[in-house]
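Sample pair:
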Amino acid sequence: MVYPYKYRSLYRPPHFAALPKGLVWDYVEAPAIDPMIAVRRGLPLSRHRFGVIATERMLTPEELESFDLVPHE
């Protein structure tokens, strides 16, 4: 499934504890720090250290700040 909202993590890889509770997400660009994710999932390798994720809903400004995420254009 492709989700419409894309974000990048500034300081750590995305995982259940580094994203808002209950958020549904998936990688759309594999992290540069772990290129095997690209191979396993057939994703393009990101130029961003922790990759790019897509989410099912738009994150609030408070969530972006709390989890050190930025929108990906």
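The radius of gyration is 11 Å.
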